[in-house]
Amino acid sequence: MLESSFRIGSVFGIRIGVHYTWFIVFFLLVSSLFIAFRSDHPDWSAHATLLTALATTLLFFVSIILHELGHSVVAIARGVKVRSITLFIFGGVAQTAKDADTAATEFLIAIAGPLVSFALAGLFYLLQFGFSPYSETASETFSWLMTINLVVAIFNLIPGFPLDGGRVFRAIVWGISGNAIKGMQWAVVSGKIVAFGLMVSGMLIALQTGMLLNGLWLIGIGWFLLTVAEGSKRAYFMERLAGNVSIGDVIQKEVPMIAADRSILHWVDEQMLLTGRRASLVTEDDQTIGLITLSDAIKCPRTQWSNTPVREIMTPLDRLYIVKPTDSILEVFHIMQQHGINQVPVVDQKRIVGWIDREHILRILQLHVEAGR
Questions:
Q1: For residues 165-193, b (16+ Cβ closer than 10 Å) or e, as one string?
Q2: Where does the chain cross the membrane (predicted)?
Q3: Nearest residue to 195 (alpha-carbon basis) of 157, 153, 163, 232
Q4: In principle, which of 61, 74, 161, 215 could form an S-S bond with 202, CB 3.0–4.6 Å?
Q5: Would you call 68 a catalytic residue per the annotation?
Q6: What domain range is 207 assigned to?
């Protein structure tokens, strides 16, 4: 969802990134705060007002990062690896390597973020109280940050997945019923109710009050929550399914092969483009010696395709990641994600018996989901 982001640093080994949509909300927030501060304090200079708006906005996003770090620190302590935290147009999101394995872990991870926001609201209240006799601009900054962190904490506790409150709700249902699937199902239902409620509220605000921007913002948040709730549900059930289906059940036994001395051009024109297979095993003397993919071919200048044998650009067999028929689809999918590969040979007793590719896995899983299996 948030692939188009760039890194701004790391904390505890967690990558901190900014999605390009963040710049939109950054600009809007600075502009809104500038107008609000200018209206409330006409005696401030434009320069001072702008600096206060900028500082307040930056501290707000620091608060969002701290909120997500609250989730992340607890997740790491409970054995759940956190890959990254990304700021985007609707706030921040922490990406974990896996879901929580117990209801207690899910609850603790989910509640940690709002608790951090509540703590920040208290801290900014104390700072506002302490600075009020000395600096009006600092006092206004801390006052706004106190309020917004309180709003963030309360809003996130709404029991609608994927909000923190929805995850807390999921953990509670999971803990009471002992059924993780039931917890996810109820959390997604609550998430959809909240999402539709926000979108309807946004439309009413836009139509009845004329506050178009506020209405559109609520509609956007509602649409985002709806999309993420449905996507999370699909990913959750596909992952559980993938953990129970072995590679041996879905292996592709008809493996495309190409002789090592054939040219890249021959492989592209006579095999890949005609079959739609983006990769082939490379053989020599009836033995598999490597794997060639379209990505390998593209790295070679096209003018050299006709006289370059595939063995020169293939990945040798001893450098390939291989899997066994008894491995689950989930294990193989994690290997593909971790190493950025799309195909892996399947080996049984030191003999290649087939292969599996990412597209085939996703198609199989999607069919299982659609069939209700």
A1: bbbbbbbbbbbeeeebeebbbbbbbbbbe
A2: 20-37, 49-67, 73-95, 107-127, 142-163, 184-205, 211-229
A3: 163
A4: 215
A5: yes
A6: 173-242
Structural domain contains residue 164 = no
- Say if 166 falls within a structural domain: no
Q: Work out the mean pLDDT of the chain and round it to a whole number.
A: 86
Please tell me whether 47 is known to bind a ligand.
Answer: no
Question: Residues near 264 by Cβ (< 8 Å), separated by ≥ 6?
Answer: 292, 297, 300, 304, 305, 306, 308, 309, 310, 313
Tell whether 225 and 340 lie within a shared domain.
no
Q: Angle at which helices 212-242 and 329-339 pack, to 10 degrees?
A: 120
Can you say how many angstroms the Cα of residue 124 is from the centroid of all Cα atoms in its chain?
30
**71 marked as binding residue:** yes
CATH code of residue 327: 3.10.580.10
- Of the residues 3, 68, 284, 312, only one is catalytic, namely 68
213 and 230 share one domain: yes
Residue ending a domain, among 201, 226, 242, is 242
Give residue-wise pLDDT tens across range 1-19.
Answer: 455 577 888 888 888 888 8
Q: d(Cα 172, Cα 174) in Å, to the nearest integer?
A: 5
pTM above 0.90, yes or no: no
> Within a domain: residue 168?
no
